[in-house]
Amino acid sequence: MSVLEFIISGMLAAATPFLLAALGELVVERSGVLNLGVEGMMALGAAIAFITVHMGAGHLAGFILGAIGGAALSLIFAVLVLWLRANQVAAGLAIGILGLGLAALVGKPYESMTITGLKPIAIPGLSDIPVVGGIFSQDIVVWLALVATFAIWWMFRATRLGLLIRAVGENPHAAHAIGTRVLALRLAAIAFGGAMAGIAGAYASTVYTPMWADGIIAGRGWIALALVVFGTWMTGRVFLGACLFGALSLAELTGQAVGWQLPSQLLASLPYLVTIVVLGVISSNRNRMRLNSVASLGEPFER
Question: Residues with Cβ < 8 Å from 98, sequence gap 6 or more?
Fold first, then answer.
């Protein structure tokens, strides 16, 4: 297998944790709430899912319980910022640290243990195409992540629910004036974002790297947050950004395969370096940021 084939075939699988977490955060931010606790929610979901699968309950149960764990942690955040009106940045950071601590605590007895991941599902005919055929041989979660991407894009584009979420994010007082339950909608969006982060973590620990190690999420939650800004709060751009960072995350393995004379630490840090550069470039264009940004992002709502 050539380097190009390796990157193309592994890109979607590597992008899936980024994509799932970023899609959840996209819905949260579109509702006007900034949740910086994604990393902790992913870590907790990863730990719960790994323990569940290791105990023999199966991957489906692992993903469900991982989603519940991420959603439960997000609900603590929701209470803090929606009803107690705590600062969203501080509350999100605190919840993220809490999630990382809980994941390390419950996962300690399972350190370095492994499980069996999911087998890829090949599309007959398409998976045999030279060079790009590998992209059509993915596990079921990758395909479901693609379906979720389309569903969220459609929701924001053509459904009443998507319109309400966008309205609450742009002007919650106007949305409240026409009868929209702003806090309830934001609560649902936060719970959805937490569940998606939990699923993303579950995929990372039970499928992509089917083992448990403290720190297995390795900053993916922060990259997911950056992807929402990178994609300027647009679903399609978030998907493309996830694919880009998924490909970049394979740089270390690619470099070792082709014999690049570069430190492995530098190759492993490449996605984070690119994140910093991309955010700097995007932030320099104020007009583009202002065009698609959420007007009430981070602002508490009071009736």
Answer: 37, 40, 73, 76
* CA pair distance 33, 50, nearest whole angstrom: 29
> Among the residues of 59-211, which ranges form H helices?
59-78, 88-107, 140-158, 160-170, 172-177, 182-203
C-alpha distances in Å from residue 278, one per residue of 36, 228, 272? 19, 12, 10
Nearest by Cα to 135 from 20, 252, 15: 15
For the stretch 270-298, pLDDT in tens is 777 887 887 777 777 666 666 678 989 98
State how far the alpha carbon of 188 is from the alpha carbons of 31, 82, 100, 104, 181, in Å: 10, 12, 23, 27, 11
User: Which string of b and e fits 21-33 if b means at least 16 CB within 10 Å?
Assistant: bbbbbbbbbbbbb
Closest CA to 37 of 101, 133, 83: 101
* Type of residue found at 173: H
Chain-centre distance of CA 19, in angstroms?
5
- pLDDT-derived band at 303 (thresholds 50, 70, 90) equals confident
Tokens (6 digits) for 116: 């069996």
Total-model pTM: 0.93
Query: Which two structure tokens, joined as six digits, stand for 269?
Result: 């840090």
CB of 11 closer than 8 Å to CB of 244: no
In this prediction, residue 272 carries a pLDDT of 79
Q: How many Å apart are CA 51 and CA 111, to the nearest integer?
A: 11
